[in-house]
Design brief:
By secondary structure, this protein is an alpha/beta fold. It has 16 helices and seven strands. The chain has two domains: 183 residues, 3-Layer(aba) Sandwich (Rossmann fold), CATH 3.40.50.150; 142 residues, no CATH class. Strands 3-2-1-4-5-7-6 form a seven-stranded mixed beta sheet, with helices on both faces. The two termini are 38 Å apart. The structure holds S-adenosylmethionine (SAM). The site of S-adenosylmethionine (SAM) has 21 residues, from helix 2 and strand 2.
């Protein structure tokens, strides 16, 4: 899955080797900002260490849980057949709504007709019952009404068996179908230039995308069962110990992740939201806010975090863009703060990072950069 700040590419560019080498004498791997789960999954598949992964957001811990908390594969056909049959039955339990959706007909191919048709789908979606949280909040925007209904149906029929795996597959499908540029801060609009992108995204098949994600997950599991926590990183440091290798990959943007990934959070929680603004976000009080994304707090927060890790005697690997980031932290500051509590070994690798739209001087979504990798042992 595309994820802002994912370390997937860096794992093949020095970071993977360093982690493999430094986990050798450790008893546990802890990933405090697990995001897409790329790093936790890497460690869980390659080492005999249990992995503890945490993040503020539930979609992130669920994506990670799907791999690190499962120690064997699963029967893809069986999961798929039973789940999809239940989802289809769920849709048919409300024939009146299904009739309304079907009456909208196929997506028109020309511009003006499409715009009128999109308007009608938005009205139907917005007036749908709370049984359909995704349809109500995002139907006619990030998703066609049919896609939104499919996501609602799959979400409503996720049962206990392989729960995290199914939810992770659905999160991946929701991410790849979303009519938005890589994140869900704002859906594509209906202007002449954006409309083709919107309609293309709406043609994607949610069931097929979910199957593809399940397929990938069915070949991926942990050697040793791990655990996940949806928690502030600082709180997780309280229960670290001197056998831990703690991976620290904090936000580098002043824009909150919860603003960019609220759709995935709604998919995983399945709770209805009141959509606000052009991004159709839930109200700010319902979106986790990270002090790492606040210019006024990020430095103190990072300082406290590193002190917390060092106080428990744990080793650490920190990654951060070498230059100045929009949240007020920089490679230099991260290194200086870490050096107060740890012996530091530094490497720098070429990387690409996303600005999350939060970099005021350059609005390019992805920029070439150098990324610091610090290996830290407490003083
Ligand atoms: C740079 S991303 C991590 C990317 C991840 N390493 C990967 O490979 O996908 C930063 C993550 O930190 C999470 N986050 C932000 N503030 C946090 C906090 N105070 N505690 C825990 N997680 C936080 C965000 O939700 C986001 O997923």
């Amino acid at each position: 899955m595309k994820y802002m700040g994912s370390k997937r590419a860096m794992l093949t560019n020095g970071l993977g080797h360093l982690i493999e080498e430094k986990t050798k004498d450790r008893r546990r791997f802890v990933d405090l900002f697990c995001g897409s789960g790329a790093v936790s999954s890497f460690v869980a598949q390659r080492t005999e260490l249990p992995v503890l992964a945490s993040d503020l957001q539930k979609y992130a811990t669920t994506l990670t849980e799907a791999v690190i908390c499962r120690t064997k594969g699963f029967d893809l056909q069986k999961v798929h057949d039973v789940w999809y049959r239940e989802a289809s039955n769920w849709i048919h339990e409300d024939p009146a709504f299904l009739k309304e959706v079907l009456a909208l007909g196929q997506q028109p191919t020309n511009g003006p007709e499409s715009i009128e048709w999109i308007g009608r789908t938005r009205v139907i979606a917005e007036l749908s019952s709370p049984r359909y949280p995704i349809t109500r909040a995002y139907g006619g925007y990030y998703y066609s009404i049919q896609q939104a209904l499919a996501i609602d149906a799959l979400r409503a029929t996720v049962n206990k068996k392989n729960r995290a795996t199914k939810l992770a597959a659905l999160i991946s499908a929701a991410s790849s179908c979303a009519a938005a540029p890589g994140h869900t801060a704002q859906p594509f609009s209906t202007t002449e230039t954006s409309l083709p992108h919107l309609l293309n995204a709406w043609r994607k098949d949610v069931f097929l995308e979910t199957t593809q994600a399940l397929n990938k997950l069915s070949t991926t599991w942990a050697k040793v069962r791990g655990e996940v926590k949806q928690k502030n990183a600082l709180d997780v440091t309280e229960n670290l110990n001197d056998g831990d290798l703690v991976f620290v990959d904090p936000p580098y943007s002043e824009v909150q992740y919860s603003r960019f990934y609220h759709v995935l959070e709604t998919v995983v929680t399945g709770k209805a939201i009141t959509a606000e603004g052009s991004g159709r976000y839930p109200p700010i009080t319902q979106r986790p806010q990270s002090a790492f994304c606040l210019l006024t707090k990020s430095i103190d927060e990072f300082d406290r975090l590193m002190l917390g890790i060092a106080a428990q005697g744990a080793h650490s690997i920190v990654t951060f863009p070498a230059g100045v980031a929009s949240n007020g932290l920089s490679g230099e500051i991260v290194e200086a703060l870490s050096a107060q509590y740890f012996k530091v070994k530094k490497r720098e690798v070429a990387s690409v990072f996303s600005t999350l739209g939060g970099n005021k001087s350059n609005r390019n979504a992805r920029q070439g950069t150098n990324e610091l990798i610090l290996y830290l042992v407490p003083i």
